Amino acid sequence: MDDLADSSGSLMQNADTATSSLSSSSVSSSILTNYPLISALVAFALAQSIKFFTSWYKERRWDLKQLVGSGGMPSSHSATVTALAAAVGFHDGFGGSLFATALILACIVMYDAFGVRLQAGRQAEVLNQIVYELPAEHPLAESRPLRELLGHTPSQVWFNALDYHELEL
């Protein structure tokens, strides 16, 4: 019994030594060479940057919220998950379970973008109009408006999916 305790203690000590020997540089270098992660982050940054500059072009003012906000064209959600799925497919193969998982995740995110989030944005428009028409003495008359631009139309979502897939090729 003591031999078992000694050997398990030795194993625990070896595991601790192996864990501590992993330097932060090896972890960070593996993140920096993670092709699917880099692809997804670049697609997100590119989509948000396009939104930012498009907003400036249309309104002639810089809107920093466009760098992190959701909704609008292009869809950073669609771009990110499409780039991730495509990169996983190119990196690990299109026949594996990892690609299948990434593809299903992408489909769920894109469905949510033009389904639930689009409808929530349309409801926000109606609710904002109702609040706007309230008499000034009503307690909700001074409430902050809800965000209306939450989702995307189906064509916006699919355009982004196809557009960012082309970047991977």
Q: Helix/strand-derived class? A: mainly alpha
State the order of secondary-structure elements, H for helix, E for strand. Answer: HHHHHHH
Largest sheet: none
End-to-end distance:
60 Å
Q: Stretches where pLDDT falls below 50 for ≥5 residues?
A: 164-169
Shape: elongated
Strand content: under 5%
Query: Over all CA atoms, what is the radius of gyration?
Result: 24 Å
Give me the number of helical elements.
7
In which range does the helix fraction lie?
A: over 70%
Number of strands: 0
Q: What is the average of the pLDDT values?
A: 75
Protein name: Acid phosphatase/vanadium-dependent haloperoxidase-related protein
Pfam family, one: DUF212
Transmembrane segments: 35-54, 66-88, 94-114
Keywords: Membrane, Transmembrane, Transmembrane helix
What's the helix and strand layout?
Blueprint: H1 2-21, H2 24-32, H3 35-59, H4 76-92, H5 97-114, H6 116-132, H7 154-168
Explain how this protein is built.
The chain is mainly α and 169 residues long. The chain has a domain at 35-58 and 74-134. Helix content is 72%, strand content 0%. It is built from seven helices and no strands. It has helices at 2-21, 24-32, 35-59, 76-92, 97-114, 116-132, 154-168. Helix 3 runs antiparallel to helix 4 (76-92), helix 4 runs parallel beside helix 7 (154-168) and helix 5 (97-114) runs antiparallel to helix 7. The N and C termini lie far apart (60 Å). Residues 164-169 have low confidence and may be disordered.
